[in-house]
């Protein structure tokens, strides 16, 4: 199990990130990327237990007695989803401030970029990043807290 | 000449302003606040008196959108009532200043009493249905506070709540009745209107509009209930004697010139509008029954205030009956008796207050012969008491004669059973004489009192009843003066046409009504020696059943309601989830299926499975997995089955050309499985007894819900070959140009319908926060 | 200026984010939270004035999110009806959050109380503004999720049990809602409510068969009835209302309940009323989905009045009484809606006004009463009617505010509740006058009975808790001055609405017109006749 | 119009309902899960289901290329949103169930009383 995890986790993480980035054009996106990322973390948790996830990966001494509320990794997750939410709202407002309307998205296509020839930069990616962060933060919070119960 | 709006509104507003300023006034005047309030009442009285003879309607806008205005009519009837209320108000406030000496909560007392008086003035003068209702309800509210003055006394609270329930409950009927009138006005006057003055001016059109719409009798009944509640008519009479727990000045005010007269007043007010055969049948009967029952109960009373309270109900019955008769004399009886009753009942209550204050008792049984110690009080009581009994030449006699006349005329005209009306009126009057004598007996006969010495009452307590007794004497001596001054105006306002009205004494010749009076007086005096036996007989009947005993049915109804109420909660909200789910799902299934049936929505022709075979196969597996879930032997097995269902559905999404969904479903399903397992490992297994009957019932409901979902899907799911919706086409074509992405679903999610996604993220956030809250608050516990 | 349409949503979601961001500093968080509430109220007031009520206001405005034209993007619509509901939400929300700051224990406030509160407000705001059916579902979920957490907030046995029941019922409701929305999408080919109204009014032009709409809309009706707490979907109400923190209960009773009512009115009167569908089942016949709605809603309303009214009579606690009372009162709100559905023309209009005025009154009065109950429990440590007594002597101000609240419930003029009762009775009688029969009569009599029961239970709480001798719990208790300030402000609003009723009436009339004038609604969303359909 | 889809939706709703009526809290939560899944299948059915081909997948070839006819992306987007939301709800339901079990000492929902 631990071996599987050791091999699978990096793969899943890479997959998750690529799914996230390709989401606008191929199946994937912030939500799927986020859930997959969470799955990677969870695999670590299943293989090594919460202690490893929190003490090993995140370098943190675990003390279940103090209450999950002040738990540092939970705090980190919490910050992640708050950050995600902020980005989503911020990107929505940005659309407004840039003369469009609330939640307006736009994209530019950069030509003549080496290797890729053309790269599309969509503001939707920012929005999707917010989605990704909320999902990762939110789900990890749920899992670690439910797991710690 | 027309009345002055500013004068009228000032007269009404002044008591309210005084009520609001009571804390301030009290700070300056302390216990002498009563005098300040009396001064305010006097100003109102004075202002209103200036309007004598200046009859008409004035208005100021309030809610123009629905045609409601602060509209006031000044006429004889309104002024009679308003002047009585403010005039007696002056005396009651004066009396209060002495009587309430050393009492508690005086600020609230005076504020409520002032507001009470203001509301009465409002009811008297208002000529807009909404405004009438406003003041009508304010009188109920003020009386609630006044009756509940001794808030720590359970009996006070009981009586206050009773008065509130009866009068405000009656108010509901009034509101309904007034709305019926406004609906009729829409037809009769051509516009939506709450203008009572205009309605009265167009009474013919109003009546025919009411009859056209079949609303005449409903209007009549609703208003009768309201008036009966307010004016303590049988069977809503019981709150009045209970209301005597209020401080005596309040009782005097409540009974003579204010609260209880409001119903009668309004009956008089609407008499020109609604009178007719139904009116007479309703109000004459109601009034005479109340007159009799009230008199009987008064005879059986053992308490001074109780006796007077029932007597009030009885006299209110007299007025209602008077207005009930269509004859001129009927209206005269109602209007004139309103004045006379106020003049004699207020001093009697004040006398009862003096007795309670000085002799320390309200019991009729342990007081007698007090005339030596309280000669002035006794004199006042005799004057007022004889007037109450209807003994000539006191003023009570005149108005009662008018009632006899009206009743006799009615009997004479209608014949047959209608002769009961004069007969009942006479019988009731016998008992009126009897209880009047019983009351006066406290001053006569052998000296008996709970206290050895009965001190002389302070002047402030004696002057107000004395003034009123003087009023009785004046009206008795020169009744025509009162008639000319105001009663004629009142009679005009409460009758159709312009009846001329004069009072003659001594009567020029013997008439049937005079004979009826004679019978009443002789009967009453003759029965006096056996009062106790009569009283006991009445008591026996009264207490024979809950339904007859005053407030018996009220107590029963209230306690039954409270008992039912105590049961309803636990009965309906058992806490059993299945009950809730059953109700909800059964209702929704029934409604949805009924909806399809109602519109004869047709299922399109079914052609095979309707899906490609591969899809059908996946679906079949999903269905099997679904059915396996309930049969799972353990939690873990069930969760795994559930996951299989989820994964199969992911495959379904693939074959349904939805890769994004499939991916999402896969990972989400994995996570859900994980959370399930995490939670389940800490939950015990649980096996409920499987009751065949319960399972059978559940299966039936499940099938019904399943059919509902099945039919819904079948009815509305589009033909696979059908064109995609405009929305779908747009998204596919515009995904690249507008959203810059080739994954249409993702573009829809982050761009076209980004707002949904935003909400969805908030949901995830809340879910995350929720587990944090659940965990944290457990360690913290309920500290609410 | 059309940005003002989305502004309330933006403020609400910014409130959520801000409340998270400053959560490390409790004092700042409390201040921010209350301030956001005030900004929200200000934004709503500005938006409503500039767009709906003001002299130069267009009367209604739409906002296309992301700049995508309707029906392809999501449209927000601020018209008279949503404006009316938003104002209610703003008043109650501001009162509730301000009260929360001084009432809820500071430690507990730190447990995400503020972000959750603003989520609740956000969900409500989105639901009132959205012009898209699926988006309505999303905001419903936001609103519900926040309320689940609040019901379970004080994690006791009773609280968690209530939350589980509340959650299960509403998750089922959500599934049913998806059924309804998906079905309507399949039938009409759109999710945009204005577009749907347009297509349903002229089904031939869009090539759709509207027959299943009646059954499908019943699914949504049930979901909305569940949110509104109508019998037989009221089961969650008493437990949820008595277990949530009381300021949140004020929100639940004052605002989220009204979301259900709003959604019924919006869906049926704005969207579906134009569909000409012959309806005939079990003696119910007519030619639009409204003829199906009328008897169903009338029955639910009457049942709610009876169950809620009776249930409130003998409850042990103040909040228990008012929770049951809420079930009954929402019956008073939907009965006129049913009457509106059963009639046409002016009566329909005035019946909707009646529902709206009653809803306004109930929101104000009931939140006032729940907050008063909170103040009582805070001061005395108990809410049991039998353990409290003589409060009127202890705190006349609290007593005064409470008195205003119950009198408004009873419907005494000139308070807000009077006009609610006035119009509800009015339309009930007018219904009887236009269509005499046993149904209108039965409805009228149940209104009468419900109003009578209201007097019974309100006087019971008053004479029980505020009069009488001071009980040990009350002796020496002190009511927090800041809490009193909120109560007095709310009571003042209740009085002001009644005394200065004319503008309120005109606002309600605007709202009722907006609800029924389908053409205007479509016009606002599609200013140029829009779209291909 | 698809009997197979309708049968699955109807069947899953029936199963879900049956589970919701159980006294075992865990089974009630399963009921929730099943019903939500059924609603999602229903939504997909509302877009119409055809034989899967590459063209039907609502992912386009690339920028500027010809636009094929695809499966209804609207319902897919709706279902995606619904899946996420129901995931949040299920997570909350599970956490809450556990708490409710701890507080009430039983997962028999019929045993939890109600007061007030």
Output the structural class of chain C. mainly alpha
Q: Which ranges of chain B are low-confidence, i.e. pLDDT below 50, for 5 or more consecutive residues? A: none
Overall pLDDT score of chain C:
92
Assembly form of the protein: heterotetramer
Total of helices of chain C:
22
Strand order of the biggest β-sheet of chain C: 1-2
Number of helices, where a helix is a run of at least 4 consecutive DSSP H or I residues of chain B: 32
Order of strands, widest sheet of chain B: 1-2
Proportion of helical residues of chain B? over 70%
Rg over CA atoms of chain B: 38 Å
Helix-residue proportion of chain C: over 70%
Sheet/helix structural class of chain B: mainly alpha
Give the tags.
heterotetramer; A: 149 residues; mainly alpha; C: 533 residues; two-stranded antiparallel ribbon; 3% strand
Description:
- The complex is a heterotetramer of chains A (149), B (784), C (533) and D (116).
- Chain A has helices at 2-22, 30-48, 50-57, 72-97, 124-148, and strands at 107-113, 117-122.
- Chain A is mostly helical.
- Chain A has one domain.
- In chain A, a hairpin with a 3-residue loop joins strand 1 and strand 2.
- The longest helix of chain A is centred in the middle third of the chain and has 26 residues, at 72-97.
- Chain B has 784 residues and is mainly α.
- Chain B has four domains: 1-166 and 235-274, no CATH class; 275-542, no CATH class; 547-573; 577-725, Four Helix Bundle (Hemerythrin (Met), subunit A), CATH 1.20.120.
- In chain B, 73% of the residues lie in helices and 2% in strands.
- In chain B, strands 1-2 form a two-stranded antiparallel sheet.
- The model of chain B has no long low-confidence stretch (mean pLDDT 88).
- Chain C has 533 residues and is an all-alpha fold.
- Helix content of chain C is 76%, strand content 3%.
- Chain C has helices at 3-21, 26-53, 80-103, 106-109, 113-129, 133-151, 157-188, 193-201, 203-206, 213-228, 236-243, 246-272, 289-313, 318-342, 345-380, 391-394, 396-410, 416-434, 438-466, 481-499, 501-516, 518-525, and strands spanning 61-64, 75-78, 279-281, 284-286.
- Chain C starts with a helix and ends in an 8-residue tail after the last helix.
- In chain C, 76% of the residues are buried.
- Chain D is elongated and about 60 Å long.
- Chain D is mainly α and 116 residues long.
- In chain D, helix 1 runs antiparallel to helix 2.
- The chains are: A mainly alpha (149), B mainly alpha (784), C mainly alpha (533), D mainly alpha (116).
- The interface between C and D is large, with 41 and 39 residues.
């Amino acid at each position: 199990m631990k071996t599987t995890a050791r091999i699978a986790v990096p793969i899943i993480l890479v997959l998750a990130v690529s799914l996230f980035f390709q989401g606008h054009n191929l199946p994937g996106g912030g939500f799927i990327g986020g859930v997959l990322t969470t799955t990677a973390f969870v695999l670590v948790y299943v293989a090594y237990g919460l202690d490893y996830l929190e003490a090993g990966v995140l370098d943190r001494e675990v003390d279940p007695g103090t209450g999950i509320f002040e738990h540092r990794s939970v705090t980190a997750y919490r910050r992640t989803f708050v950050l995600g939410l902020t980005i989503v709202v911020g990107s929505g407002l940005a659309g407004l401030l840039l003369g469009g309307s609330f939640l307006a998205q736009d994209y530019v296509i950069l030509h003549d970029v080496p290797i890729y020839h053309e790269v599309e930069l969509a503001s939707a990616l920012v929005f999707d990043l917010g989605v990704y962060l909320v999902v990762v933060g939110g789900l990890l919070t749920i899992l670690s807290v439910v797991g710690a119960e | 000449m027309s009345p002055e709006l500013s004068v009228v509104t000032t007269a009404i507003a002044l008591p309210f302003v005084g009520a609001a300023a009571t804390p301030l006034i009290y700070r300056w005047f302390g216990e002498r606040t009563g005098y300040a309030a009396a001064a305010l009442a006097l100003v109102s009285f004075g202002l209103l008196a200036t309007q004598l003879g200046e009859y008409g309607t004035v208005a100021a806008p309030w809610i123009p959108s629905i045609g409601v205005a602060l509209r006031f009519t000044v006429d004889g009837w309104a002024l009679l009532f308003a002047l009585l209320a403010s005039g007696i108000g002056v005396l009651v406030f004066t009396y209060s200043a002495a009587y309430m000496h050393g009492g508690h909560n005086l600020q609230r007392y005076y504020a409520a009493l002032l507001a009470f008086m203001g509301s009465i003035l409002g009811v008297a003068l208002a000529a807009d249905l909404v405004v009438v209702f406003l003041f009508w309800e304010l009188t109920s509210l003020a009386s609630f506070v006044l009756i509940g003055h001794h808030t720590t006394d359970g009996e006070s609270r009981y009586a206050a709540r009773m008065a509130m329930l009866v009068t405000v409950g009656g108010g509901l009927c009034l509101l309904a009745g007034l709305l019926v009138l406004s609906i009729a006005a829409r037809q009769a006057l051509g516009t939506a209107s709450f203008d009572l003055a205009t309605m009265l001016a167009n009474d013919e059109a109003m009546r025919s509009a009411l009859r056209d719409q079949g609303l005449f009798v409903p209007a009549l009944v609703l208003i009768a209930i309201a008036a009966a509640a307010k004016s303590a008519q049988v069977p809503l009479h019981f709150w009045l004697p209970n209301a005597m727990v209020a401080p005596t000045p309040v009782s005097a005010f409540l009974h003579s010139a204010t609260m209880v007269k409001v119903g009668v007043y309004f009956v008089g007010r609407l008499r020109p509008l609604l009178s007719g055969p139904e009116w007479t049948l309703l109000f004459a009967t109601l009034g005479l029954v109340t007159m009799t029952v009230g008199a009987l109960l008064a005879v059986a009373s053992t308490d001074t205030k109780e006796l007077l309270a029932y007597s009030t109900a009885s006299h209110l019955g007299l007025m209602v009956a008077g207005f009930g008769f269509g004859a001129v004399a009927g209206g005269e009886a109602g209007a004139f008796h309103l004045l006379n009753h106020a003049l004699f009942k207020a001093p009697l209550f004040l006398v009862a207050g003096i007795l309670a204050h000085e002799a320390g008792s309200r019991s009729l049984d342990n007081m007698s012969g007090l005339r030596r110690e309280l000669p002035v009080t006794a004199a006042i009581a005799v004057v007022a008491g004889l007037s109450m009994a209807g003994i000539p030449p006191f003023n009570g006699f005149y108005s009662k004669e008018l009632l006899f006349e009206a009743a006799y005329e009615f009997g004479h005209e209608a014949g047959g059973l209608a002769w009961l009306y004069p007969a009942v009126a006479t019988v009731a009057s016998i008992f009126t004489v009897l209880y009047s004598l019983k009351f006066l007996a406290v001053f006569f006969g052998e000296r008996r009192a709970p206290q050895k010495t009965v001190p002389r009452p302070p002047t402030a307590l004696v002057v107000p009843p004395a003034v009123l007794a003087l009023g009785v004497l004046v009206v008795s001596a020169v009744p025509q003066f009162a008639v000319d001054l105001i009663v004629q105006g009142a009679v005009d306002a409460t009758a159709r046409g312009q009846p001329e009205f004069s009072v003659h004494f001594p009567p020029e010749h013997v008439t049937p009504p005079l004979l009826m009076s004679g019978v009443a007086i002789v009967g009453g005096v003759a029965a006096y020696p056996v009062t106790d036996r009569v009283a006991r007989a009445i008591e026996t009947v009264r207490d024979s059943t809950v339904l007859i005993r005053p407030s018996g049915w009220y107590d029963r109804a209230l306690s039954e309601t409270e008992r039912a109420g105590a049961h309803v909660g636990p009965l309906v909200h058992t806490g059993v989830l299945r009950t809730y789910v059953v109700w909800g799902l059964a209702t929704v299934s029934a409604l949805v299926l009924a909806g399809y049936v109602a519109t004869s929505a047709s299922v399109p022709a079914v052609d095979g499975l309707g899906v490609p075979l591969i899809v059908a196969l996946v679906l079949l597996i999903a269905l099997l997995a679904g059915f396996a879930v309930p049969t799972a032997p353990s939690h873990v097995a069930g969760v795994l089955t559930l996951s299989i269902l989820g994964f199969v559905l992911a495959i379904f999404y693939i074959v349904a050309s939805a890769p994004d969904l499939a991916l999402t479903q896969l990972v989400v399903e994995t996570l859900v499985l994980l959370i399930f397992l995490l939670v389940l490992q800490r939950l015990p297994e649980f096996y409920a007894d499987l009751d065949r009957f319960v399972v059978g019932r559940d299966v039936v409901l499940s099938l019904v819900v399943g059919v509902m979902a099945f039919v819904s899907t079948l009815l509305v799911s589009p033909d696979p070959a059908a064109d995609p919706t405009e929305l779908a086409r747009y998204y596919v074509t515009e995904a690249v140009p507008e959203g810059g992405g080739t994954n249409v679903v993702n573009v829809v999610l982050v761009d076209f319908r980004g707002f949904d996604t935003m909400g969805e993220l908030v949901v995830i956030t809340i879910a995350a926060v929720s587990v944090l809250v659940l965990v944290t608050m457990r360690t913290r516990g309920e500290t609410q | 200026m059309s940005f003002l349409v989305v502004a309330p949503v933006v403020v609400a979601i910014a409130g959520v984010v801000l409340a998270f961001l400053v959560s490390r500093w409790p004092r700042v968080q409390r201040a921010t939270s209350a301030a956001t509430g005030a900004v929200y109220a200000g934004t709503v007031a500005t938006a409503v004035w500039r767009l709906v009520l003001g002299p130069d206001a267009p009367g209604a405005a739409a906002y296309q999110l992301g700049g995508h034209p309707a029906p392809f993007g999501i449209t927000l619509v601020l018209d008279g009806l949503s404006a009316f509901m938003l104002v209610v939400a703003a008043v109650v929300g501001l009162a509730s959050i301000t009260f929360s700051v001084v009432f809820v224990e500071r430690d507990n406030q730190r447990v995400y109380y503020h972000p959750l509160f603003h989520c609740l407000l956000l969900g409500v705001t989105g639901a009132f503004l959205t012009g898209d059916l699926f988006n309505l579902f999303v905001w419903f979920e936001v609103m519900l999720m926040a309320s689940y957490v609040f019901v379970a907030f004080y994690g006791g046995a009773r609280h968690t049990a209530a939350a589980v029941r509340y959650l299960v019922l509403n998750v089922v409701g959500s599934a049913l809602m998806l059924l309804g929305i998906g079905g309507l999408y399949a039938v009409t080919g759109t999710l945009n409510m204005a577009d749907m109204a347009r297509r349903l009014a002229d089904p031939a032009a869009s090539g759709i068969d509207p027959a299943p709409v009646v059954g499908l809309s019943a699914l949504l009706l049930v979901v909305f009835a569940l949110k509104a707490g109508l019998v037989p979907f009221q089961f969650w109400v008493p437990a949820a209302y008595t277990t949530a923190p009381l300021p949140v209960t004020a929100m639940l009773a004052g605002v989220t309940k009204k979301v259900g009512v709003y959604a019924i009115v919006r869906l049926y009167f704005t969207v579906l009323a134009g569909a000409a569908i012959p309806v005939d089942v079990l003696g119910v016949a007519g030619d639009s989905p409204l003829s199906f709605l009328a008897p169903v809603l009338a029955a639910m309303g009457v049942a709610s009045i009876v169950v809620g009214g009776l249930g409130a009579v003998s409850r042990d606690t103040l909040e228990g009484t008012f929770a049951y009372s809420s079930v009954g009162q929402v019956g008073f709100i939907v009965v006129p809606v049913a009457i509106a559905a059963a009639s046409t023309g002016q009566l329909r209009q005035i019946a909707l006004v009646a529902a709206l005025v009653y809803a306004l009154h109930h929101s104000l009065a009931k939140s006032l009463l729940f907050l008063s109950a909170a103040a009582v429990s805070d001061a005395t440590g108990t809410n049991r009617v039998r353990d409290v007594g003589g409060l009127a002597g202890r705190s006349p101000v609290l007593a005064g505010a409470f008195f205003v609240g119950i009198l408004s419930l009873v419907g005494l003029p000139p308070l807000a509740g009077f006009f609610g009762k006035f119009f509800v009775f009015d339309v009930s009688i007018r219904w009887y006058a236009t269509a005499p029969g046993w149904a209108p009569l039965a409805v009228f009599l149940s209104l009468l009975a419900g109003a009578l029961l209201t007097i019974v239970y309100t006087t019971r709480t008053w004479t029980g808790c505020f009069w009488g001798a001071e009980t040990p719990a009350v002796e020496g208790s002190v009511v927090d001055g800041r809490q009193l300030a909120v109560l007095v402000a709310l009571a003042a609003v209740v009085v002001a609405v009644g005394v200065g009723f004319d503008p309120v009436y005109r606002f309600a009339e605007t709202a009722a017109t907006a609800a029924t004038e389908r053409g205007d609604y479509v016009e606002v969303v599609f200013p140029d006749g829009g779209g291909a359909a | 119009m698809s009997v197979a889809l309708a049968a699955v939706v109807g069947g899953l709703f029936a199963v879900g309902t049956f589970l919701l009526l159980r006294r075992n809290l865990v089974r009630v939560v399963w009921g929730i899960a099943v019903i939500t899944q059924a609603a999602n299948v229903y939504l997909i059915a509302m877009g119409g289901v055809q034989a899967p081909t590459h063209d039907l997948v609502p992912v386009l070839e690339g920028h500027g290329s010809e636009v094929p006819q695809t499966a209804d992306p609207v319902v897919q987007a709706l279902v995606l949103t619904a899946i996420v939301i129901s995931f949040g709800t299920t997570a909350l339901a599970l956490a809450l169930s556990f708490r409710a079990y701890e507080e009430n000492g039983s997962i028999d929902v019929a045993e939890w009383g109600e007061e007030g």
